[in-house]
Amino acid sequence: MLHRLNDLKGRSALLALLFFISFLTSCASYQKKVYDARYNLVTRQPQTAAQKLKPLAEKPGDDQLVYLLDYGIALHEAGDFRGSNQALLAADQLVDFKDYISLSREGGSFLLSEGLVQYKGDPFEKVLINAYLAINFLMLGQLEAAAVEVRKLNQRLNFLRQEGEKEFVQSVFARYLGAMIWEQEKSWDNAFIDYYKAHEIFPNFSYLKEDLVRSAYRARRRDKYNEYKSKFGLNNVDPKKWRKEGELVVIYQQGWIPRKRPRPENPRFPKMFPVRTRTQFAQIRVNNSVSGRTDPLFSIGNVAMKTLEDEFNSLVARRLVGVVAKAVVADQIRQRNKALGNLAWIAMNAADQADTRQWSTLPETIQVYKKWMKPGEYTIAFEGLDVYGKPSGENSTPIKIKIRPGKKTFLTWRSFR
Predict the structure, then answer these.
(1) Residue 325: which residues within 8 A CB-CB, separation 6 or more?
(2) 101-415, what's its fold?
(3) Share of the chain above pLDDT 70, in %
(4) What is the DSSP string of 69-118?
(5) How confident is the model at residue 167 (pLDDT cuts 50, 70, 90)?
(6) Which of 192, 375, 383, 388 would staple 283 via disulfide (CB 3.0–4.6 Å)?
(7) Does an H or E element contain 298, and which?
């Protein structure tokens, strides 16, 4: 009788493990859950994308942060900048609240999957939360709130540097966006400092030469003003232009960040796969005449790939510990029930899949177009260009704007195809 009871217990345990394996293999991954929403963005249905992401973003849990980030982008594309900010501010609070490691969940990740650990976001993603918040506030005309996000952004960048994060995390886009906002706020010295830091990171960005000359002049750094005028060949620049005219600033978000998938050779580890898009640049039309095209400033895609490469060795080390932990647990079970121990080993390894969570709705690159214009009303439109400078077929609807003397007018556009 006792032997039969033990046999029944063993069979029950086997059935439980089989159910567990079935559950693991049937659970949709993060990438599958957001696939439809991303397709809606490609087809210019951001409101539909936001509706699909909303219940995921509102559900507390280990994955809430990543869904809030994607939800924020969908609302941003829908033109709901207030709603986007609500989602991104909630994400920002989660980053601060969940920026720790739960030992119990970490142990579970050793036995099963990295996906069991709470998603806390990569360092470059944390920086971009504040950057997108600042852009949203600019679109809402709330300059002071945008400046607050710039201060938070700079604090985060300084903290990451002190924590020893790699230099590629120091986003030139974050610095450049901050400089433009400081300039709009007439905080001239702060503007000069951030333009200078942006120049240190990416000295070849086309607009930075005049930006440094102008910000040095306005910050009353006469020595730097004269130095940069001579160094950059801008001796004929007229400071009166900066008071009499206004500046159009286009922030263009191009394509898709590379996507995380399991490595074909070893599905325990993630790998970045590029998302090919035809549209590579944006051409700006002013009153239906070609005015110029955007200049790439920051490759989020490159930073994402470098981040994963930089973390790969530590990820391998953690998974090796996980393999050993699985072997120990399976062996302990096997000593009592050989079949159950073997099945436990299979189940734990079947569950050990790559963590493919990421802020996947980010663009591949951030590009900028700037033009000084006489005060007045203009019609602006964006036209996508391929790598050869030919029209890609992806265009925007025309936008009416008003240029004011001594002010910046910010616009943003995203291409997906």
Answers:
(1) 110, 111
(2) 1.25.40
(3) 80
(4) HHHHHHHHHTT-HHHHHHHHHHHHHHHHHT-S--HHHHHHHHHS-GGGSP
(5) low
(6) 383
(7) strand 295-299
